[in-house]
Amino acid sequence: MKLKMQNNSAIIEGDFFEDQRGRVDFVNNFDASEIKRVYFTKNKEVNTFRGWQGHKIESRWFFCVRGKFEVKILKIDNWENPSKSLIPETFILNEFKPQVLYVPKGYLNGFSSLEDNSRLMVLSNFKLGENPDDDYRFESNKWQ
User: How far is residue 34 CA from its own chain's centroid?
Assistant: First the structure.
C-alpha cells in the first residue's frame, strides 16, 4: 500500500493508466468503507482560503477532481483556546496526480484553489447534522 504518513494524517497514493482510448485515474488503496457523506467545493476565486474548520470526532478525506488545491491541516492543541504558534502541514493536490489526503479527527483544515475552476471532493465519516456539536471554526488568518 502506498501510504505516506505525516503525524496522523496520510496521503494515499493513486496512479493512472493511459492508452489510445484515454486515461483512467485510481486510488485503489483507499478504503471508503467509513464514508457516509460526499460533497464537492469550488472556490469563487483562486487563492481564497477557506478555513479554519475542524472536528474532534469526525475525519475527512480530500481528493482533487479538477485543477489544483493547497490544503492545510493543523493538529489542534486546545479546542477552546488553541495556541497561535501551531504550524500547519501543507499538501498540494492536483487532478493529474491521483491521491487522497486523509485528515483524522482532532485536526483543523483549510484550503485554497490554485487554478481557476478547481473542484475538491470532500468525504466524511459522519452524515450531515449527525454531530452538531463537533464543528469548530476559527479565523482564516489565525495560522497563515
Answer: 16
